[in-house]
Amino acid sequence: MAEARGIWRWREFPFTSGANNLRLDRLNDKTGYARALKTGLPSPRTRHKKTPMTIETKEVVINFQDVVVELGGQKIYDRLSFEVNKGEFVCLLGPSGCGKSTSLRVMGGLLPITSGTVQIMGLDPSIAWSKIAYVFQSPRLVSWRNAMENVLLGIELRLGPGNKSAREQKALDLLALVGLSKEVKKYPSILSGGERQRVAIARALAVDPEIIFMDEPFSALDPTTRERMRVEIEQIWQKTGKTIVFVTHDIDEAVQLADRIILLTKKPTIVKENIPLPDARPRSLGLPALALHRNRLLQMFNSIESDSKT
């Protein structure tokens, strides 16, 4: 399918065969082995044996390796290295000005690096742009297009002409996913800040990206709306299985959302800490385990701020 490069750069589970439920109890070993050779079914001698638990191998989809970025003679990154696995929700956390948003520009192929390597799904970022989508701090909706038309814009820019009715149905489905099934014909001027950001999320999903970059998408919202949007993006991530890289300077936001937090230092930026969080979801910041992570992050944040002043 022909692709048109644009701003918005838009999983199957194996099923076990029912045949394995066939009983071989009445077969002797000899007959059982013959049947196993013909059908691929386990023989009576082996089918009850316990096998070691299979360890799931993680697929790395983003790889930063010893990345140095210099802008205007200033070193932004000093051999920055980290990885993101497929399906992970990773938060890049750090104080303002540490280069969090810069990392998204690098991963999107919008900013060249001085040295090191960056790969997106094994590809150079300049080639992998079609596998990613962005959600910015500002929704960046087109004022003369309604909610559905703004979602369709992402598809039009990425994929060019196509089946109009199928695309409209996809836009409707995605707006329903983000809780806007009754607002499809509304224009940005009459949508709330949270609703506009939901349209932007639906637009990003519309091009079916492997990875979504979110650059402080809730920071401009009021506290109540911001909290609601955190819950909703967690639900959307769980339903879609997308890989999300989420930039924030808000510790509570990172602790509530992330599978793993990558804490960055002040410039020249390196990884201060790589922090996995408990699997349990939905999350409440009142949980003791999360409170411990939050307090630890606050201490490290204060340490980073102190180091930058010395």
Task: Please tell me about this protein's structure.
This protein is of the alpha/beta class and 310 residues long. The chain has two domains: 30 residues, no CATH class; 250 residues, Rossmann fold (3-Layer(aba) Sandwich). Helix content is 35%, strand content 20%. The protein is built from eight helices and nine strands. The strands form two sheets. Strands 5-6-7-3-8-9 form a six-stranded mixed sheet, sandwiched between helices. Strands 2-1-4 form a three-stranded antiparallel sheet, with no helix packed on it. A hairpin with a 6-residue loop joins strand 8 and strand 9. It is globular. Keywords: ATP-binding, Cell membrane, Membrane, Nucleotide-binding, Transport. InterPro entries: AAA+_ATPase, ABC_transporter-like_ATP-bd, ABC_transporter-like_CS, ABC_transporter_ATP-bind, P-loop_NTPase. This is NitT/TauT family transport system ATP-binding protein.
